[in-house]
Amino acid sequence: MTNRTVVVGLAATFVGLTALLVVAGVVVNPLLLAVAVPFGAAAYLMWFHASGRLRERVRREADRLGPTERERAEQRARAAENRRDTYRTAGVSGSRSASGTTGARGGTRGRNRTAAGDARDRAPSTHGMSEREAYATLDLDPSADGETVRSTYRERAKRLHPDGEDGDEEAFKELNRAYEVLTD
Q1: R_g over Cα of the chain
Q2: Confidence class of residue 107 from pLDDT cuts 50, 70 and 90?
Q3: pTM: predicted TM-score of the whole model, two decimal places
């Protein structure tokens, strides 16, 4: 038995109960008319669902409201990729979009690297550490996404924090510099 058949059967049952309650309300007690109203409403909603009109209405409303959050995220990712391509073809370097990173939002870190991107890895950043060295400090692959970088950093920071039992102040500072390089 399909879902539609079950809903149609329930709707028919509720229509029958509504009719019975209306007749009983007229003949026996008018209070039963108040009980018939919710049964009638339920029967109508079940019929609306079984006929497929509910799905059509929801789809129309969704189209009217616009894209979902997932679709907006995909649009933002495409726009970021277009910006990176534009910077690459123009030969502009040093911009956040041109480096192939998205920072704390995660996503495309390390993907689509070019020869210019590899040269930036070798060049020292403002923190005195290249991206390649930062990935090595965190023991991560350069293709790791932002969420992996963040979770690895947090795990190691807990272990290396100077107030912890395995605390090492210099290693903790190095870890922080690496994280800053990868999230800038």
Answers
A1: 31
A2: very low
A3: 0.34
